[in-house]
Each structure stands twice: as structure tokens, then as C-alpha cells.
Specification:
single chain; about 280 residues; alpha/beta; 8-stranded mixed sheet; 9 helices; globular
């Protein structure tokens, strides 16, 4: 056991994994159902530095899924970033946690300061802008989102996705996830958006997929040399599968972000350790 705790149960992650994770800075944008799960899991695995961004206070309707939230938080109108900070510090008191109760566009300093950005925001356009910011700062981006669609009376389709992209590789537009059709439909339906249904178990599954992608990115337990990952969750049947959409959508190198868009020279790719030869 070290001063940071006993990580022996995850020693398979790599000889230096504890140190790497303790030195890693993550930005989580959106601390609702998905982001609160991700913050909790990253605290458990031993991430040492958090940048939490969300402008909202908790509401009563958030209690069905927001990890760590209490009825007292609802009564007091506690900011979601403060609830996540409390959860992280309850697991890892030594963790460095900076919060910003603002829109993420007003917290560029926290984004730029991170090694990896997690996007847990609503809407396709918000995702597009956040991935653009991550590309500008030369940062890997991991996105989660879920949707509940009414098919007929008393019948609903629950679905979601986890997508990770890296600077220099295909972006979410190249993959075929962010399409002009979706962006236009979202804009046209904005006034009729209403309440977006969310449930804790689907949020938790998607958050776990996101943390798994993050761990493959930083530690050598399972080599992940691909430039992107898109996993689809069929919430009705509880199935996760690789999306085949990129097989049809990718048309060569990313045409949405050129090398001139890669602006931040401070990303330390040395955090990515090569797999060790166990022979």
C-alpha cells in the first residue's frame, strides 16, 4: 500500500499505472447522470487531478441518477460540481479537484489543463463544439450519451453510445455520428425538446465503457492502438456492440480538422506506456 492507498487489486494495469493515474488530469464536462458516474469511477481507479465543469445546481428530478446526490442537496440547491467533488474526495482525499460552475466555453483554462476530456453533454451541437475544443488543445475526447425514443404506446427504445476520438484520427463527423441531418433536426426540434429521459443503470453502463476506454488509453493492460472507438448500447436488450457506421463513413484522413488545428504542444504522450513483454 502506498500513501495514496492500496491498488493491489488493479496491479494488472501495469507496473507504473498507479503513478500514471495519480499524475493524470481529466476534465469532465457535465456532472449529471453520466458525468457523476465517471467522476466516481475515476476516483476509485486512482486518478489524481480533476477539472469539473457544469453550470447547474441539482434539482429533484436529478436524484434518480446523479451519483452521490442526496435529498439535502436538492433542498440546498447544491451545484453538481460540488457534489462530484465531495464524492471524489470521499474516495481519494488527496485528489486535486478544481471546479467551475459555468458553461464549459467559459472554462477553457480547465479544458486546456487536462490530458483527457470527457464529454457528458446534451445535444449533438454541444458535442461537436466540445470535440472541436478538445482537438484545438490536442486532447483525446471521450463522449457518452443516451436516448429514450417512444416507439408506440408503452413501448420505448433505450439506447446510447460511447465514442472516443484522438487528435489526428477520425472525428465524430468522420465516423458518421455527427451528421448534418442530426444537427438540423436538433435545431428544428429545439423548442419541442421537452424533458430528456435518463436512467441510472444505462448512465452507469455508458460511464463504465468510457472509463474502460480511458484506462486502455493510459495503461498497457490491453493495447488499444485504434484512433477511435464507437460502442453502441442497446438498452432494451442490455447489449453492447461495436458500431459499424464508421465502416461506411470514413473516407480517408480527417477532413474536418487539419494539422493547423492541433494547437496545444503540452500534451504529454509519454503517459501512454508501451505494453511490457511478460515472457
Amino acid at each position: 500500500m502506498t500513501a495514496r492507498g492500496d491498488f493491489s487489486r488493479q496491479s494488472f494495469l501495469g507496473e507504473d499505472a498507479e503513478q500514471v493515474l495519480a499524475e493524470t488530469r481529466v476534465a469532465i464536462v457535465g456532472l449529471g447522470g453520466g458525468g457523476s458516474h465517471i467522476a466516481q469511477q475515476l476516483a476509485h481507479v486512482g486518478v489524481g487531478h480533476f477539472r469539473l465543469i457544469d453550470p447547474q445546481d441539482i434539482e429533484d428530478s436529478n436524484l434518480n441518477r446523479l451519483v452521490g446526490a442526496t435529498q439535502d442537496d436538492v433542498i440546498n440547491g447544491t451545484p453538481k460540481v460540488e457534489i462530484a467533488k465531495r464524492v471524489i474526495r470521499s474516495v481519494r482525499p488527496w485528489a486535486d479537484v478544481e471546479v467551475s460552475k459555468t458553461e464549459w466555453q467559459a472554462a477553457a483554462d480547465l479544458l486546456k489543463d487536462a490530458h483527457v476530456v470527457f464529454g457528458c453533454v446534451d445535444g449533438y451541437r454541444q458535442r461537436m463544439h466540445l470535440e472541436t475544443a478538445a482537438r484545438r488543445f490536442c486532447l483525446p475526447y471521450i463522449d457518452v450519451g443516451m436516448d429514450v425514443t417512444r416507439l408506440a404506446d408503452r413501448h420505448y427504445a433505450v439506447a446510447g453510445q460511447m465514442i472516443s476520438t484522438r487528435p489526428g484520427g477520425p472525428c465524430m463527423r468522420c465516423l458518421g455520428f455527427l451528421t448534418q441531418q442530426r444537427l438540423d433536426r436538433e435545431e428544428n426540434d429545439y423548442a419541442d425538446a421537452g424533458i430528456n429521459p435518463q436512467v441510472v443503470w444505462t448512465n452507469g453502463t455508458l460511464a463504465s465503457l468510457a472509463v474502460g476506454a480511458f484506462m486502455r488509453l493510459l495503461t498497457p493492460w490491453f493495447d488499444s492502438s485504434t484512433e477511435f472507438e464507437w460502442l453502441e448500447l442497446d438498452g432494451n436488450n442490455q447489449l453492447v456492440s461495436r458500431s459499424r457506421q464508421p465502416d461506411y463513413s470514413i473516407k480517408g484522413p480527417c477532413r474536418h480538422f487539419t494539422s493547423n488545428d492541433l494547437g496545444d504542444p503540452f500534451l504529454d504522450l509519454s503517459l501512454r506506456r508501451a505494453p511490457k513483454d511478460s515472457s
